[in-house]
Backbone:
């Protein structure tokens, strides 16, 4: 048995925290995820600073915020020469410590089949990339099936993205990913530690569980949507235009309470199926004798509005979009349920994975280990849409459309009252934190241009003709002292 702990990182796509039982949801059943919280630490204020699929995943891999990686929207990715710059992913760091690293399911890398440090990949990209010929495509083709656009599924058009997936159970995307992860766990050499990331494509839209999964969800028991606000209305036209594009082909100009209820019912059904797959993964670890030496991390890349504020999906900085589940269950030393109310970020996972592997994080990583950040931490978020500074109580947002807002999350958790005019001192404090983070990230993002030799002693070749600099420079050199 390995002396280092195994790490199982379970990452559903687009799962908001308050649709899990352990985060207060009493309208669906998630006993296996709840069981992780019962023996570990549940982080109640876990934040996805850049709540879009690709930026969030780039940050989790590198431990850098989006304004450091430069990946601020879904059409960007990490630079190919990042290793020359000293930017390493957490699987690369764990490889050096003797781990076998595996990525099973959706990762959302570009190119989609790049490994980014994972030694083993079994690929099932998200349900919107239907033309990618990944391993899941091959599995479908071998049984004469194919990936379908949501519009080709029963109910999609009339139910605004809530549809029925008619594939056989073993070919449902989340179930197929779980089966591949189970096979990998069963064949793993117990003398070598593993770090496995399991990326479920769901419950991301299209909200498409199999029909039989819906019978277990009481649609009438689900909470009503958070009302739309003046601030949220400034995003509505852009949001509607985005979903009208071919990738979704949905008109969300209007969303009725009944339509939201149906969408949430289908979403809940997908969450409950993922929970059952989490149970299957844990049972496999138990049956193979690996569970007692495994740390299980459960999280998501961002949330989903599900009709809150009149919106769907993610991308803006409201709590349903940025607040994600984060549970760490260390089966080496299970404890009574612990709730950590401090503000943590998905960027903290990189350093935490490294610490569990008894190694240092990448020199470029700026996120701390979980639980080590100061109590007054302010998490900074940046996307191509805008910026955010979120503390334990307050949140400042600034968007490219000119909208600025300040919310008191303690007294106004549903972000209904913009208090930016009433609290100028709070606004200035958060704005100062935002400015400082942006300036620091600017140094990091341009570190490849740093010329350390400009400070060379007189006899250095820098001062003579024909000297040429190396490019790119590495992060973590003297550029940090600028």
Residues:
């Amino acid at each position: 048995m390995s002396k280092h702990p195994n790490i199982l990182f379970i990452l559903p796509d687009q799962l908001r925290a308050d649709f899990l039982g352990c985060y207060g949801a009493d309208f669906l059943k998630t006993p296996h995820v709840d069981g992780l919280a019962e023996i570990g630490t549940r982080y109640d204020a876990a934040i996805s600073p850049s709540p879009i699929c690709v930026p969030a995943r780039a940050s989790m891999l590198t431990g850098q915020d989006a304004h450091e990686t430069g990946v601020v929207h879904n059409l960007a990715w990490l630079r190919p020469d990042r290793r020359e710059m000293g930017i390493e992913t957490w699987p690369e760091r764990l490889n050096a410590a003797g781990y076998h690293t595996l990525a099973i399911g959706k990762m959302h890398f570009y190119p989609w089949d790049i490994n980014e440090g994972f030694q083993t990949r079994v690929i099932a990209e998200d349900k919107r990339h239907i033309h990618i010929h990944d391993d899941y495509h091959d599995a479908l083709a071998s049984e004469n099936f194919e990936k379908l656009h949501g519009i080709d599924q029963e109910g999609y058009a009339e139910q605004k993205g809530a549809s029925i997936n008619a594939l056989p159970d073993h070919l449902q995307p989340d179930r197929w990913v779980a089966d591949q992860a189970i096979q990998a766990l069963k064949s793993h050499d117990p003398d070598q530690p593993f770090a496995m990331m399991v990326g479920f494509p769901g419950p991301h839209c299209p909200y498409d569980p199999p029909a039989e999964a819906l019978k277990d969800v009481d649609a009438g028991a689900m909470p009503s949507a958070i009302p739309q606000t003046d601030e949220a209305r400034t995003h509505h036209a852009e949001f509607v235009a985005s979903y009208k594009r071919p990738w979704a082909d949905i008109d969300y100009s209007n969303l009725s309470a009944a339509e939201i209820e149906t969408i949430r019912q289908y979403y809940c059904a997908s969450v409950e199926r993922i929970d059952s797959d989490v149970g299957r993964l844990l049972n496999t670890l138990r049956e193979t004798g690996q569970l007692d030496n495994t740390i299980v991390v459960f999280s998501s890349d961002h949330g989903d509005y599900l009709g809150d504020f009149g919106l769907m999906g993610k991308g803006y900085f409201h709590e349903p979009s940025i607040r994600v589940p984060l549970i760490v269950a260390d089966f080496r030393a299970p404890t009574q349920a612990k709730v950590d109310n401090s503000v943590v970020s998905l960027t903290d996972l990189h350093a935490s994975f490294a610490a569990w592997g008894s190694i240092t994080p990448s020199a470029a990583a700026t996120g701390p280990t979980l639980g080590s950040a100061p109590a007054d931490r302010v998490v900074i978020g940046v996307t191509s849409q805008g910026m955010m500074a979120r503390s334990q109580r307050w949140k400042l947002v600034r968007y490219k459309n000119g909208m600025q807002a300040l919310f008191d999350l303690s007294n106004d958790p549903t972000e209904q009252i913009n208090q930016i005019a009433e609290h100028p001192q709070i606004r200035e404090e958060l704005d100062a934190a935002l400015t400082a983070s942006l300036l620091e990230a600017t140094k990091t993002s341009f570190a490849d241009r740093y010329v350390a030799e400009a400070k060379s002693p007189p006899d250095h070749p820098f001062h003579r003709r024909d000297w040429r600099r190396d490019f790119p420079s590495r992060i973590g050199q003297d550029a940090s002292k600028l």
The two ends are 47 Å apart (CA to CA). The chain has eleven helices and twelve strands.
